[in-house]
Amino acid sequence: MFTYLMLIIFSIIEILKYRRKNSFISYDSLLASQYTPGISVIAPAYNEGEVIRNGVHTLLSLNYPKFEVIVINDGSTDDSLQQLIDEYELVEVDFAYHEEIVTQPVKKIYKSTNPVYAKLMVIDKENGKSKADASNAGINAASYPLFLCTDIDCILHKDTLLKMVKPFVEEKTHVIATGAVIRISNSCEVENGFLKKVKVPKQFLPLFQELEYIRAFLMGRMAWSRINGLMLVSGGLGLFDKEIVLKAGGYSHASFGEDLELVTRMRVYMEDNKKKYKVKYIPESMCWTEVPSTLSVYAQQRTRWTKGLAQTLWFHKKVFLNPKYKIFGLVSFPYWVFFEWLAPILEFGGIIYYIYIIITGQITWPYAIALLVFIYSFSVMITIISVLWDEITGMKYQKKSEVLKLCAAAIVEPLVYHPLVLFFSIRGNWFFLTGRKLHWGIMTRSGFKNGNNKLSNYEQRKL
Amino acid sequence: MQNNFDLSGKLCLSILKINLFNYPLLIQIAVIVSILAVIAIFLTLTYIIYNRTKRQSDQRKTYEAENQILEELNDHLLMYDSIEEMPENELQETVKILNEFKNRSIIFQNVLVRLLIYFKHNLTGNITRLITATYFNLKLNEITLSKLKSVFWFTKAQGLKELQDINDYNSADTIQPLLVNKNLDVRVEAYAALLKLQTNSSFNFLKNEEEELSNWHQILLFDAITKSEHAVVPNFADFLSSENKTIVILSIKLLLHYKQFEAIPDLIKLLSNKNEQLRSEAICALGVLDAEDAEQKLISIYPTERNPNKTQILLALGEIASGSALHFLKDKFLKADHYTILKSAAAAIMSHPTALKEKILASLKDLDEEQKAIIKHFEDPLIRLHGVR
Lengths: 463, 389
Prior knowledge:
The complex is a heterodimer of chains A (463) and B (389). Chain A is 49% helix and 16% strand.
C-alpha cells in the first residue's frame, strides 16, 4: 500500500514538473538547430507486407531535423522487401556493414535513388527468430549517436523524436534512454498509417489493457523516472544512447524480455563503470499500437513477458540489494523482484490461504469481507487516479463518455480482468521454473478499420 | 421520511463505531483505508467530470473568442499593409473594439495575446509594426510584464518568451533583475530576451554565467543570437578562456556560425586544454574552419588522445583536405586497430580532392576485405556521407 502511495506521489510530481517545463518552451529552436543530435529510427519487420509501405511513410514523415529510418527485413517470406524496393526506388549499395553486435548474416543493404527518400535505408538479413537480432542489425548500421527502437506497425506522433530527444539535450547528467507513453490503437481511426481519431478500445481485452497501459506508464514509469529508478523502456518506443547500448552488448537474442534486459544491462554497465546517468520517461502519448484481442494471443504474450521478466531478474541477480548499484540495486531491482515477478505467486498463495482460513473458520466472514473490500477499493482507487493523470497530461479522448467507460472498466477490472493477468503470470513463472520452451509466436491482429492497415507480426513487449 | 433516513444513518454509524474499535488492528486499518479509498474514488471521478466539463466549456468559449477576434483583426487590421494606409481613426476604433474584447474575460484576453503574437511571428513587413502598435495600445504588454513578477519561475519564463515574441524594447529594465534569478531556465530566457531586444549588455552573460548550460540552453541561446537582426556580434574567441566549459562550447559553435577565422590560434591553444570534450570541440571547429595551420598540431596530439578524439582528428584533417596530412591518414587507415578509426581515416582520405585521393588510393596495396569494403562504401554516392558525423 505504501509503495503504491509513493508511486502516486512521485508520478504526479514528475508529471507536474514536466508540464511546468513545457509550459513556455517552443521546439522551433530544436527543430532549426544544426546541433540537435541525429537519430536513427530502427524498425524491424517480419512479413509485414500489409503495413510496410504505410509504416515507412509514417516514419519518414516524422518532424525532426536530422534522422534516418532503418528498416530491417528480418528474412520475411512474403513480398515486404519487394514492396519496399518498388515503392521507394531502392537499389543495392556497397554499404560497409560492421558487425559490432553479432547478428544473423546481412544479405543486402538498400538505399533509395530518389532524394525524397534519402533518409531511408533497408537492411535485408536472414531471420534471427527474435526482434532483438533484427534490432541489433539496425544498431550496427545506424549512423547517428541516438537510436529510436520501434515497430513498423506502431503509429508515432509526428513530434515523437523532438519530444523524446529533449531529456537528452536538457539534462546535464548523461541520459542513456528515454521512453514515452504507448497507447492502444485497436479501435482508433487510422488512415494511411496516420492516426485520425483516438478512441477507447471497444473489445474486452484491449479495453482493460488500455487501463493497464495508462497505469503502468503514467503512474509506474513516471514515478520511477522521478527517482531515476526506471528499469524498462518499452520495445515499442524507446530512444537510446547508441554508444552505451553497444558497450552493454546490444539486445539479448536469448531473452524473451529483451527491452527490460537491455535497460537493466545498460544500468549495470553504467554503475560498474561508476558513470552518472539517467533513464527518463515523458508523460506524453507518442505511440499507438495494436494489442492482442483474443485470449490465445494474449495468453502467449503474457506468458512470454513473465518468462522474460524472470529470465532478466535471474540473470542480473547480483544487482539484488547490492549497495554498489545504489537506487537501482536497493530499490528498483527489489521492487521488480517482489512487485512484478513474485507478486502473482504471493497473491495466488494469499488467495489460497484466504480461502483456507475462511473454510477452517479462522477468520469470520465480516473480517474476510472487510479485507476483500480493502483490496478491491484500493486497487480501483489506484486505477482511477491513473485515469486522472491521463486527463491531466492530455485528455486524449474527445468524449466524456469514453473516459467514463474507462472508469467503469476500472471498477470491474479487479473482478473480471485481473484473474487473467494472475493466471498467465503464474503460467509464465511455471514455464521459467520448468525450463519449458517458449517461441516468439505469430501475433494475429485484427487491423484497423481501414483495410490497408493491418498490423505487425512481431510480438512486442510494451509493459 | 427525512427522520427515517436520519435514524438509519445514525444507526449505521453507531454500529460501525462500536464494532470498529472491537476489530483487530489489521481489520481497523483495512476498514479505514477502504473508506478513504472510496472517498478518493468519488472525489477523483467528480474532479474528472468537472475538469472535462470545464475544459470543454473553455474550449468552446476560446473558439468563439478566436472567431470574433479574428474577424475583427481581418476586417480592420490585417487588410492593411501599413499604418499609413489605414483611414483616420481606424486604428483607434479597432483598438477600442479589441479593448472591449479584452475586458470581457480572461479567455478573450489570452486569445488576444496569443493571436497578436502569432501574427507578429508569422507575418513580415510593415504589418508587424501595426500589430505591435495594437498590442501596446491594448496594454497587453502589462499582462506580459506582470508575469515577470510572478512567484513561479515558469510564469516568469512564459513572460520572457512573450517579450521575445513581441519585441517589447521598453522592457529591458524589467528584465535586468531576472538575469540574476536563481533558476537557470529563467536566466537563459532573460538572456535570450535581451539578445532579441538588442541592448548593450546582451552578450554579458557569456562573461558572467557560472552555472553549466545544458545543450538545450545552448541551442536556445545560439538560436537567439543568430536570429538577432542587428546585434553587434562580438569576437567569440574572447570567451574561449572562460572557466565555464559550456560557455566555451557555445562560443565555439557561434564562432563557427559567424566564420570567425581569426579565432583559429585560440582554438589551437584549446587543443592543450585538459578537458577532453573541449579538445574535441576545438578539433571539430578547426576542421570546419579549414585551419591548415592546425594540421601539424592535430597530428602531434593524435597519439595522446583516446579513440573518440582520434576519430575527430582524422575527420578534421579530411575536412581541411590540404593534402599535407594524406600520408598520415593513409598510415592510420592501414594500421587502424579499431573500426571507427578505420572508417574515419577512409572518410578523411575520400573527402580530399579527386587528384590527391586517386594518388593515395593507387598506392594502397594488399588491402584486406574490410578495408576494401570501406573504400567502396565511400565511393558510393548514395552512402558516402553515412556514418560520418
